[in-house]
């Protein structure tokens, strides 16, 4: 494989200008002609459930009760201190009429006044589908513009509320978080690279390919959603930005540091780039392949959220790999030594200094057993906190972001109109014949549900709008008036009183038009449907529903609502965690075996990252649950933490281990470890800080989005531990203890070279000879 990268190095240096032009043209074309990734983002976890999930089946069963897909926006006006005045009411009546002029609005009416007289609710109905993300954003923006053009009296506060306003607020925050994450990540990386390189161009050249791919990947991923049929979440959008900028900069650092090393050894700029790519090209490729392989395993997931991570992240990393192997060396070849200005040119072969990391490695390899025990003990103590985690956040996307207009609107809606913000759990029953043929069944169902300790409140056809309606009277009204769902808003026949007429019309929410389905809205005794106690109660609620369905002869039944969907989300997530993790471990172990020509090294490398995972999860529990006020960590964090630490952590292991292998051709195993750690230390340290920093920026820029905040900070902690502890303590000590067995069964495991010129005590310098300058490429089997 080394010959491939030698030829690739020659190609990229020779056609450097053409390569840069191709990337620029490709980026411009993608931005001009492909859709943005924000246009395909989904924000509700339940949208990612498989179609055979019980909650999805129940929702399908309840479809007959859905009036339409029209969008409804609540405009809520309140006077916080005193009841609404006549002037306030006059203004709101005029506002309701004015809102009808907004495009796509078909109805706008004042529908309710709060019990204390301090708030009024206007319901605006638009013909725009509630599932049309672009359409509802336009609707909300138009409504806000209309409100701004006709300012309210000083005594009134006006906000938009409801699911449509909430969805738009979430989408706006996602886009804002993505822009902030990208901007702050670029700034952080540039500052860090300027510190690392102490030159003007090197930081820009290192980051530029990753920045190009971060702009290119979004449109490409968005376009391929219709081809590969996957869904994209807001978390995927943010992770893709961070992964490309972080991992892409890492790949750039691997090449840039090795190019600088070769320049210091006296090679010409052209030769340095070619030789550097021949040496680290394999490491970059296999580092990217471990990430691609890991995320592609997610396409086997049952939970669409995980499945939606697979293709987008794999596509982004593949594009980054192409840029790392073509655009990055082309840029280095164009700028040559100027990339590292104002560093002075090295005159001929020189001593290679291994600095701090060489000295640290020199001391650690003298006591590998002690080093390994200390490392394992440290990680083990932190890992003890991991089992204390309590998964949460299954419905984290159900509320508007804090501080937004919709946040205050929903808050006021819940305060002044509690019934409007009611979040029921629905029990649905289907019968083989209309319920009107056996009306007593309705009484039996309501009685059984009302007496169950699982529920504190039950609303159905026998108590619509909170008013009791006897079964016999309900049956008579149906025989006289027909299906309630087909009645006009105002009675034209005057057969019954207006009050009874409207009461009967309200039963259309609980009995289907043909009478073969009935629905009950319940309040759970376990608490809010989005909290863990209610989610944990779902199996009992489903069992109860199934039992009474059999009792009354229903052919189908189901439990719909937030608690039911959240339980299925949890079940799907746990199923995928159990089934996908072993696949990811196996695939990455195979890739490590191929790049290291060993079946021993992959074992302790995977184990080291596993320890890092449990320790990172334990630290996250300490920070968010013990020190912070979180009731638990977002349920997707352990899976994301394991996946990315295993895939990204192996990037550094691959770079370090391939360099140890390279040095092992000419040194004893201890000397090889010191030389490799000393040589790769700056690159790996810088890369780890870049990657951890970008994840940290993700977490900090997404404050208010618990799932993204915890993922970002949790991954940042894991990467830092992997960078400074796993590579420093666990991996070098394991290699020294195993000795040449680390490379078994390759021929390199058979012969121990004579001690060379690397000082184990100092770990600082060695003389680079002509023989070493032209040493056998590391990719050759031996």
How many beta strands in the DSSP annotation?
Answer: 12
Q: Rough shape?
A: elongated
- Would you identify the CATH architecture of the largest domain? Up-down Bundle
Topology-level CATH name of the largest domain: Multidrug efflux transporter AcrB transmembrane fold
Gyration radius (Cα, Å) is 32 Å
Structural class, from helix and strand content?
Answer: alpha+beta
Description:
This protein has 782 residues and is of the alpha+beta class. It has four domains: 203 residues, Multidrug efflux transporter AcrB transmembrane fold, CATH 1.20.1640.10; 116 residues, 2-Layer Sandwich (Alpha-Beta Plaits); 242 residues, Multidrug efflux transporter AcrB transmembrane fold (Up-down Bundle), CATH 1.20.1640.10; 136 residues, no CATH class. It is built from 25 helices and twelve strands. The strands form four sheets. Strands 3-4-2-5 form a four-stranded antiparallel beta sheet. A four-stranded antiparallel beta sheet has the order 9-10-8-11. Strands 1-6 form a two-stranded parallel sheet. Helix 7 crosses helix 10 and helix 13 crosses helix 21. The longest helix is centred in the first third of the chain and has 35 residues. It starts with a helix and ends in a 9-residue tail after the last helix. 52% of the residues are buried.
